[in-house]
Design goal:
about 90 residues, alpha+beta, two-stranded parallel ribbon, 5 helices, 4 strands, about 15% strand, extended, signal
Length: about 90
């Protein structure tokens, strides 16, 4: 996925036909994640919640997957531990 922008209440995504995002959307037929994303609005995994977030209406949610009615799944393409280690090492 490349650019994303909003026009009123519609999010426009710039997708390349051969990108993995596009292929996943076509494969799963799941294009609308709005209800899940909206459940995450004004939530944070930081505990305690920073004061500036409290003042703007954020609240702490320990299980953001559950809160958004999503289920974490193992990936067959991305090794999270490998990715996490690469990120922590600056790569």
């Amino acid at each position: 996925m490349s650019p994303a922008w909003w026009l009123a209440h519609c999010c426009m995504l710039g997708l390349v036909a051969t990108s993995q995002t596009t292929q996943n959307m076509l494969r799963t037929k799941k294009y609308d994640m709005t209800s899940h994303i909206n459940l995450l609005a004004r939530t944070t995994g930081s505990n305690p919640v920073p004061e500036w977030k409290v003042s703007t209406g954020y609240s702490y949610v320990k299980d953001k997957f559950g809160h958004a009615k999503l289920t974490p799944q193992e990936s067959d393409l991305v090794d999270l531990l490998e990715y996490s280690n690469a990120c922590s090492n600056g790569g």
